[in-house]
């Protein structure tokens, strides 16, 4: 069975007015996301015709395509998370997510400081994610699109710290961009996602 091709999603955040993140930056950023969609589809098509009998860990078409696929699909999913929760008014979360952040970080301000530090220490991405195995929230650091994924963890917030996300607006001042990211975060999105996680936890007695 052939896998379906991906198509680029639309996001209100691309053309919205943000505090500290320009429309030009968002439009150019969206083009990169579209490129990841195209490359994912290209790699998947090439994998269908790859000679699997020649697969080899030193070099083979199968290895190259399988590795590059993780980069492409990481670029797709990371950016869909990122664009999906921009366009808000920042501030603090509400409900179950706020309570869980306060449980693991002490306060929302402490969480913000920790995610900012993770973003400053990363080469590409930082995420807030819920770990299903250990039942906690944690801010993870990432470099490339496919670097340091954590199995069985659900990302709730994705902070893109590649230079393309901020250089037009802030040059090398990454910290100022991260502050702007917080100002434009739409908490309704991760809060709704975590509400679903919380219901599942309760249903399974976690």
Largest sheet: 3 strands, antiparallel
Strand elements, count: 3
The string of secondary-structure elements, in order, is HHHHEEEHHH
Count structural domains: 2
In the CATH hierarchy, what is the architecture of the largest domain at level 2? Answer: 3-Layer(bab) Sandwich
Distance between the termini: 36 Å
Unreliable stretches: none
Mean pLDDT: 97
Instruction: Return the structural class.
Output: mainly alpha
Strand order of the largest sheet: 2-1-3
CATH topology of the largest domain: minor pseudopilin epsh fold
- β-strand percent reads 5-15%
Q: CATH superfamily membership of the largest domain, which one?
A: Iron/manganese superoxide dismutase, C-terminal domain
- Gross morphology is globular
Radius of gyration: 18 Å
Q: Could you describe the 3D structure shown?
A:
It is a single chain. The chain has 206 residues and is mainly alpha-helical. It has helices spanning 23-48, 61-84, 95-105, 108-121, 167-170, 174-183, 188-203; strands spanning 125-131, 136-142, 153-160. The protein has two domains: 22-84, Helix Hairpins, CATH 1.10.287; 95-203, Iron/manganese superoxide dismutase, C-terminal domain (minor pseudopilin epsh fold, 3-Layer(bab) Sandwich), CATH 3.55.40.20. Helices cover 51% and strands 11% of the residues. Strand 1 and strand 2 form a beta hairpin. The relative contact order is 0.16. The model has no long low-confidence stretch (mean pLDDT 97).
Short overview:
This protein has 206 residues and is mainly alpha-helical. It is 51% helix and 11% strand. The chain has helices at residues 23-48, 61-84, 95-105, 108-121, 167-170, 174-183, 188-203; strands at 125-131, 136-142, 153-160.
